[in-house]
Design goal:
The protein is an alpha/beta fold. The chain contains 4 helices and 5 strands, in the order βαβαβαββα.
């Protein structure tokens, strides 16, 4: 697993390219929310590349992602992407390692 912060549209475009060869996760959250803190603990258990976006410091990027995918922003939120396209998103208490791993497995299962 890799875990890194993203703050720019260039970094977002890079993760889209990375998704061409495998599933990646965008994790959007607030640095001041207890629910987001719990979700961050869950993200550390995910066995996929996770790209963390803190909405207080990267609001323009958060807005760009919302517009790019047409997925309304919520926090905390995860978006799973494969081949440049989102195939799963969840927010609030549904942001769990189990939900993410199951969604990723379902996407590649025959």
């Amino acid at each position: 697993m890799s875990y890194q912060k993203i703050e720019s549209i260039a970094e977002f475009n890079s993760l889209l390219k990375q998704s061409e060869s495998g599933t990646v996760v965008i994790f959007k959250h607030s640095s001041t929310c207890d629910l987001s803190a719990n979700a961050k603990d869950e993200m550390l258990k995910v066995n996929l590349p996770v790209f963390e976006l803190v909405v207080q410091t990267a609001r323009p990027l958060s807005n760009h992602i919302e517009s790019h995918f047409g997925i309304r922003h919520e926090s905390p939120q995860v978006i799973l992407i494969h081949q440049g396209k989102p195939f799963f998103n969840a927010s609030h208490r549904a942001v769990t390692a189990k939900n993410i791993q199951e969604a990723a497995y379902s996407a590649i299962a025959p």
